[in-house]
Amino acid sequence: MSSRVSRFSYYAKSTSLTPEYYQTLLDHYWRRSGTTLYRPDQLHACCVHYTLRLDSTQFKPTRDQRQTVNRFNKYLTGDAYIKEAARLHPRSREQAKKRDSEFGLIERVHEAEYDFLQLPPEPAHVFTVTLEDDVFTEEKYQVYENYQRVVHGEEPADITRRGFQRFLCESPVQRKTITAADGKEQKLGSFHQCYRLDGKLVAIGVLDLLPHCVSAVYFLYHESIHKFAPGKLGAIREIALAQEDGYRYWYPGFYIHSCPKMRYKMDYTPQYILDPETLAWDLMDKRVTNLLDNKPYLSLSKEKADGQAAEGAKNDSDQPAAGQEESTKDPRDKADDDDDDTFLFNTGMPGIMSLDEIRSLEEMDHIKLRIDGSGLLFETGDLVAWERQDVGVSGCLKAGIAELVAALGPELLEDMVVDFWNPNL
Questions:
Q1: pLDDT mean over 103-120
Q2: CA 172 to chain centre
Q3: Quick one: pLDDT at residue 337?
Q4: What pLDDT is recorded for position 425?
Q5: Is the pLDDT score of 82 beyond 80?
Q6: Quick one: pLDDT at residue 353?
Q7: Burial class for 143, CB neighbours closer than 10 Å (0-12, 13-18, 19+)
Q8: Is 69:106 a contact under the CB 8 Å cutoff?
Q9: What distance in Å separates the CA atoms of residue 286 and residue 252, rounded to the nearest whole number?
Q10: How much is the average pLDDT of 331-357?
Q11: Which one in 211, 253, 312, 423 has a CA-CA gap of 20 to 30 Å to 23?
């Protein structure tokens, strides 16, 4: 893993992540784009990124969402199939009543899939959804090219096979199959959920399947199905996957409240927002959206603390107590006397470890390193210059590793290897 700091994000490159490790990264405000991992600085960014998640077990689709699914299902099966299937495979009175009065999410998203239909008769259209490895194929690239050109308005010259492969077909998250607590097999890793209509690939959901979530990386579709609201259908199906296969949560990707194009993410409820400072989850209710409307940066824990401080100030003197000095300086604002404003400890990024916390961390001397192709791992304490260097002085190796540790947090250090040898980084 290698790393760097930009003005509004901290970046790291990765070649291999277990699904469990990446799940923890997501819950520490990280996200990936291809093999690049990044953690935004919410406090200073012009477009503040927030991590959201939806509990699929509590999801109640809106009327519009239900109608979108039902309309698409009716198109797939066709009127002739519906009439003939009712004759050949009649529902009981109880089954018919239940279907008319309830919207079973899992049942309804599969209702018109060819593999779930009662045959005969044949439907008007053959629709299949498969979970496939996230590898490049020309078939997938053609959908990507159409989507980027038609929907996103990119110039054809800017759309390349290599760009598609790097962005959506190269993931550091390892694929594997585990046995879940209920005894069912569960897939973990990076996948493409492929939607085919009459044999033609028409949409792809790029997903990271993790121990506790379906993380939506990207969704793309061919212009020929635009009228069916494929983005909405894809989101509903991903939520259903989280519920059906036991992942529970659906992560829709970073949310930028000031970006109108991202407001659609709030159509799926209930969602929870990750606090940038405490990494606690809070319900994204009307109170929170009102705060987001009026604040460039929001930490609910800070809101609560500020409210308590304001209440306490009403009963206190404006003067500091004897022997105390007022200070408006955040101890994280500057690293010793270093004035490098790209040094992570000088940025004031919320939720990262302070220099004092780094200096007191025993694990700093035991970070695993790969420095050659021998397969052997070394520790930071083995480095000749390690003891001479200071974590608070930007530019040295020790400070660079300290930045990475601060951005990750102590929970992620045990299984981390900093790679100085891999030529792919």
A1: 97
A2: 14
A3: 52
A4: 62
A5: yes
A6: 96
A7: buried
A8: no
A9: 19
A10: 79
A11: 423
How would residue 171 be classed by pLDDT, with cut points 50, 70 and 90? very high
Confidence of residue 243 (pLDDT cuts 50, 70, 90): very high
Three-state SS string over the chain comes to CEEEECCCEEEEECCCECHHHHHHHHCCCCEEECCEEEEECCCCCCCCCECEEEEHHHCCCCHHHHHHHHHHHHHHHCHHHHHHHHHHCCCCHHHHHHHHHCCCHHHHHHCCCHHHCCCCCCCCCCEEEEEEECCCCHHHHHHHHHHHHHHCCCCHHHCCHHHHHHHHCCCCECCEEEECCCCCEEEEEEEEEEEEECCEEEEEEEEEEECCEEEEEEEEECHHHHHHCHHHHHHHHHHHHHHHCCCCEEECCCECCCCHHHHHHHHCCCEEEECCCCCCEEECCHHHHHHHHHCCCCCHHHHHHHHHHHHHHCCCCCCCCCCCCCCCCCCCCCECCECCCCCHHHHCCCCCCCHHHHHCCHHHHHCEEECCCCCCCEEHHHCCCCCCCCCCCCCCHHHHHHHHHHHHCHHHCCCCEEECCCCCC
Backbone angles phi, psi at 19, to 5 degrees: -55, -35
Is the Cβ–Cβ distance between 400 and 346 less than 8 Å? no
Under 8 Å between Cβ of 103 and 160: no
pLDDT level of residue 40 (50, 70, 90 thresholds)? very high
What is residue 4's predicted lDDT score, i.e. its pLDDT? 58
pLDDT of residue 211 exceeding 70, the answer is: yes
Bond from prior residue into 19 cis (ω within 30 degrees of 0): no
The pair of three-digit structure tokens given for residue 216, joined into one six-digit string: 């939506």
Q: What mean pLDDT is reported for the chain? A: 92
Sign of CA dihedral 150, 153, 154, 156: positive
Which residues touch 358 (CB under 8 Å, ≥6 apart)? 364, 391, 402, 405, 406
Q: What is the mean pLDDT of residues 130-139?
A: 98
**Does residue 332 register a pLDDT over 60?**
no
**Mean pLDDT, residues 64-83:** 98
